[in-house]
Amino acid sequence: MPQKAIICTVDVVLLCLRGTVLNVALWRRERAPFEGSPALPGGYIHPEEDVDTLDAASRMLREKTGIASPYLEQLGTFSGASRDPRGWSISIAYYALLPAELIEQEPAPGLVLQAVEQLKGLPFDHKDIVQAAVQRVRNKSSYSSLPVYLCGEQFTLPRLQAVYEAVLGEPINKVSFRRKMEELDMLEAVEGAMETGRANRPAQLYRLKHEFQQCLSVSPRSLTAAAG
Amino acid sequence: MPQKAIICTVDVVLLCLRGTVLNVALWRRERAPFEGSPALPGGYIHPEEDVDTLDAASRMLREKTGIASPYLEQLGTFSGASRDPRGWSISIAYYALLPAELIEQEPAPGLVLQAVEQLKGLPFDHKDIVQAAVQRVRNKSSYSSLPVYLCGEQFTLPRLQAVYEAVLGEPINKVSFRRKMEELDMLEAVEGAMETGRANRPAQLYRLKHEFQQCLSVSPRSLTAAAG
DNA sequence: CAAATAGTGTCTATAAGACATTATTGG
DNA sequence: CCAATAATGTCTTATAGACACTATTTG
């Protein structure tokens, strides 16, 4: 005999970098519970519509932010009797990374960005979910190409290094960083494209190689000495 | 409006090491669908009984194998319209590690161990789930104390090294391995306890320090050069 | 030319692996 | 004493970081 109905939802932690701080996109809830509160974009799974929960997360993103296909990965499942006032619930959480410009240039109505530290007043266990996502991103960034998804399509190496440093929260040796990027073998220089305009030597623009648009490049060793 | 009922289950991938090969514990299903087939121990979440899905997984293990508190961690959630013939379903998968002797000495009825390679005929997407668990264990073992949970309470360093080698599938340099174990700082020698009986120098017995009974020790660097 | 930042060369420090040596048991 | 394996010392190689130097732009 099946169980009493369990509330099945999907939530998405959409992260981007503004300046040097990670921000999460929050969505003003349109219904109870917590109507009007900013919370993670999410909602019920639609079994008739969604082929699986990844598909549901992708739909959630599309509906609430208009964003089509960012880097999107399952984070984990949060569950229990006490996380939702409506009853025993399950939330399958996903996280997504995006260049901040994509949100800032055409902000979806009801969407606000907020720094991931000092989050307060989030409903459900959404604060825990955001913290888990941030930890996952930090950890995965220490040995993979993950942070490139926070950059736009083209970027310079100094810019990418700053993104890594912002995510990891510590400075990285420039020579080592460039050696690692070489080793990860995920970037290609854009022929003849340089970032100019400032009073210094122009920087080469790079882009992600096509084969890494959807999948990460991972290094056998950490980029930095620290780890979690 | 809530969704059409979704089937919510928990499955456990219980792994142990027999000789040098990882085995998974399979449970002969007592009901349809796939009645009689060996499958992952699992079942419906009981909202009245389980405080969350970890608790449900723990109960599943207890009920089907009699095992109380092994290392148990969430693996991920598998979902969709097509994985279960009964309808749209969610399985929150957990994995557990255990010394093989605990299963072999008093085998629960209906439980069989099977090598994780060449699994065939598993129902649902249980083969995918097992593969994901094995990959997780391999990956996590490369930089943490995870494999100690495959050993009994006391073990020698050569034995532990063999366990790591079996899990990772490659030989490890003895000196480097011992340096890493020193660095992980998770073992303590059992005073005066040596493994004797064979025609060679006896080996010191070690055990996990108390503070690592429940949590892992992680290294900033990989144990071996390889990675995933 | 000065200031600023990009990009590279090179030396040093640290970690990993190869290999050899010593230690301790049973037969 | 021999065989076997534990345990450790030490040299070599690989990787990471420090630091300095060159390159190229604007004003």
Topology:
2 copies of one chain form a homodimer.
Chain A: E1 7-18, E2 21-28, E3 38-39, E4 42-44, H1 53-65, E5 71-80, E6 89-97, H2 100-105, E7 111-115, H3 126-141, E8 155-156, H4 157-168, H5 174-184, E9 187-195, E10 203-208
Parallel strand pairs in A: 1-6
Antiparallel strand pairs in A: 1-2, 1-4, 2-3, 2-7, 5-6, 8-10, 9-10
The structure holds a DNA duplex (27 and 27 nucleotides).
Describe the structure concisely for a colleague.
Two copies of one chain form a homodimer. Chain A is α+β, with helices and mostly antiparallel strands.
How many E-type strands of chain A?
A: 10
Poorly predicted regions of chain A: none
In total, the number of domains of chain A comes to 2
Structural class of chain A: alpha+beta
Biggest interface goes to: A-B, 36 and 36 residues
Keywords (chains A, B): Hydrolase
Domain NrtR DNA-binding winged helix (chains A, B): 148-208
Domain Nudix hydrolase (chains A, B): 20-107
Pfam family, one (chains A, B): WHD_NrtR
